[in-house]
């Protein structure tokens, strides 16, 4: 007799998959049929496991993915917690816009967290950063400045089976934030209810931790942002305020360049849209037209 159980892949360990199910955490292998189809389960995948009376289990089905992003990949990401540092590395609006455009293209919601504000001794510079982020808050991105408030609210924000993942440039403070959000992040996930391999494995590429009613990924996997696959005429739709304003442009296909009666250009002239956003939009257009990431961004 066999039975089926549904769950979410929360970790990959030496060829085994740790799957969180209603029965607990199950360590299992995938059926060979996935290799034949050149498919490979990823962390975040919603899957089905077949279990026999002896407790032997196999991963037999991968349910359709919402997305699969990052390197290493995380599947079914519903929200990104984007960590941007005030200093070390320095705050960058250009990098922020690249991340936001990339995730908008991937249809993933973003919440912003400013890290290392306490390390920035220049109070005027910190105030400018907060003013810059106030604009992003105005156009629809939640912004947090302290980890304690974020930790409290995340438990309510992460819905059932949702997968949130951290992202941000190297050194921005993602690991530090993770340890504040999930106190036991550096410990083992939990008891393995059915183990095929009892050996000890230490290599983990990506792992999900329970948080709220869903999961938080400990490895962001977004080390580089390649925007060149974006269709040039679609880029404007990934700037939230541009997309909203375009409903009032004279031409339906307005690219917000030299078209007459362009609402985006009008709002830009009135400082309702900040200049840096528009400049970054033009720079991204050039990047996509040339089909390569500029050397200074690699």
Automatic annotation (TrEMBL):
GO terms for cellular component: cytoplasm. Binds 1 zinc ion per subunit. Residues 66-225 form the CP-type G domain. It is found in: Cytoplasm. Keywords: Cytoplasm, GTP-binding, Hydrolase, Metal-binding, Nucleotide-binding, Ribosome biogenesis, RNA-binding, rRNA-binding, Zinc. One of its GO terms (biological process) is ribosomal small subunit biogenesis. Its cofactor is Zn(2+). Residues 75-223 form the EngC GTPase domain. It is an enzyme of class 3 (hydrolase). NCBIfam families: ribosome small subunit-dependent GTPase A (TIGR00157). One of several proteins that assist in the late maturation steps of the functional core of the 30S ribosomal subunit. Helps release RbfA from mature subunits. May play a role in the assembly of ribosomal proteins into the subunit. Circularly permuted GTPase that catalyzes slow GTP hydrolysis, GTPase activity is stimulated by the 30S ribosomal subunit. This is Small ribosomal subunit biogenesis GTPase RsgA. It comes from Lactobacillus amylolyticus DSM 11664. The gene is rsgA.
């Amino acid at each position: 007799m066999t039975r089926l159980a549904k769950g979410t892949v929360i970790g990959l360990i030496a060829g085994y998959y740790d799957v969180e199910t209603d029965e607990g955490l199950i360590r299992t292998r995938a059926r060979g049929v996935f290799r034949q189809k050149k498919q490979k389960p990823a962390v975040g995948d919603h899957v089905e496991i077949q279990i026999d009376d002896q407790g032997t289990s196999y991963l037999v089905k991968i349910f359709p993915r919402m997305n699969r992003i990052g390197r290493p990949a995380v599947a079914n990401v519903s929200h990104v917690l984007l960590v941007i540092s005030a200093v070390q590395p320095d705050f960058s609006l250009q990098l922020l816009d690249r991340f936001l455009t990339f995730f908008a293209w991937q249809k993933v919601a973003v919440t912003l967290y400013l890290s290392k504000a306490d390390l920035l001794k220049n109070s005027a510079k910190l105030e400018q950063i907060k003013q810059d982020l106030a604009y992003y808050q105005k156009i629809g991105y939640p912004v947090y400045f302290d980890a304690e408030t974020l930790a409290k609210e995340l438990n309510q924000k992460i819905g059932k089976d949702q997968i949130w993942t951290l992202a941000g440039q190297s050194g921005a403070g993602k690991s530090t934030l993770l340890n504040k959000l999930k106190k036991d992040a550096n410990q083992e996930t939990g008891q393995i209810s059915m183990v095929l391999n009892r050996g000890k494995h230490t290599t983990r590429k990506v792992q999900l931790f329970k948080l709220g009613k869903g999961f938080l990924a400990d490895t962001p996997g977004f080390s580089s942002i390649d925007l060149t696959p974006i269709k040039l005429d679609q880029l404007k739709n990934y700037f939230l305020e541009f997309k909203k304003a375009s409903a009032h442009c004279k031409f339906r296909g307005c690219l917000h360049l030299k078209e007459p009666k362009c609402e985006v250009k009008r709002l830009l002239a009135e400082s309702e849209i900040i200049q840096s956003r528009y400049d970054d939009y033009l720079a991204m257009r050039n990047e996509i037209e040339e089909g390569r990431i500029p050397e200074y961004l690699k």
